[in-house]
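does this look right to u?? fe (ii) ion version
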Amino acid sequence: MTTERSVELTPVSQPATTPSQTVGPFFALPGGLPWPDGPDLLPPHAPDAVMLRGRLSDGAGEPVPDGLIEIWQSDERGRFAHPDDPREQATDFRGFGRCATGPDGEFWFRTVKPAPLPTPAGATEAPHINVTVLARGLLDRVVTRIYFPDDPMANATDPVLSAVDPARRDTLVATATADGFRFDIRLQGDDETIFFAV
Amino acid sequence: MSTDSIGNPSDRLILPQYERDDASHPALDTPEYFSTSQRSPLRPLQLLPQNLTEITGPVLGHERVGETDHDLTVQHEGEPLGERIVVSGRVVDSDGKPVPHTLVEVWQANASGRYRHAGDRHPAPLDPNFSGVGRCMTDENGHYRFVTIKPGAYPWRNHDNAWRPAHIHFSLFGRAFTQRLVTQMYFPGDPLFYQDPIFQSVRDPKARERMICEFDLDSTIPEWALAYHFDIVLRGSHATPFEAEEDDDDD
Ligand SMILES: [Fe+2]
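got this back:
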């Protein structure tokens, strides 16, 4: 076991966490949240690099130029560099990326395609990337998942993807491009992206 | 806790599960905050089970933190104008456990309420000696500490004569994707709270109080700086899903 319980655990009726507030319009101060290496998860000549690009848009279909997109994912063998992953560990992969959207709402990451993952219930999750979206006008982060178009079999049995409304399932699947994948995020509207409560 | 009775851990994944606290957080759709109208998703959120991707998260180390990142008053040649303050506290989870070695990022307006950002049109002076950006790591007990300048209130165009109460933006990772938190720290007794739809978007008054720091006499530096204390509470984890089942009752 890698987790420990505190010996001084107090009985909690309501888990009194600190509330979320919007990231606001000014997080992109010089030297601030958009790290210089934020969108690039890989060393210069990584052989398995893929480009993940997308656009963040609002309910009017307009680009969101002041959003912050974060991704979290396994490496190409399904490993996380994290002490709470109880499986055999061996990865240096950062797994985390952060990109401020541009004037056209566009964001990008240079990363690897993740691998399938086992679940505690004995199922297998198809390769996916978790996404956090932060922006002015969002009082809390919103979370979505990117799945991949070249995994139709794994996607069909993925416990998360198969539980969502089939009519909206496509909003969670990226499209293939010449050098990787594209995943647009629509915050609102008829083709609103599926967002998750974690 | 022993897991022997439920078989070999290598046969079965045992993952921590992070408790939800929806009552403390603002609704995405908060019409009083005008920018939510085109940006907040309107469809119901789908429940995401907490599997490997959710219970892990970026392990960011000291390589992310520069030498003067914790002291926003020494990042330039001269000293910034304004009231020098120490802001310190602990990052804990809702079980009361400290969150050690986690990255804390802050950003804020200067003493006159102006951000060093091209989009900030508030006609208040920039301070050449203040960037308004800081970072540090919590120590092994979850403690963090910044030195900065007390930020000014600033106007915005949400409604007639709208002003944001003075605040410092905070970004936290915790230990897992589920614990990610972006929030704002406010100062005690601010007369602008009543008209701020962002602060008021947290409907529970007790939860709102958890965003307000406390004056902290013990951390003041005599003849140098006043001090405020601000603890941040992230979601807590149950050790195993099995405990979650038996612990989840009220009490
Ligand atoms: Fe602000």
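The first helix of chain A runs from residue 152 to 157. idk if thats expected tbh
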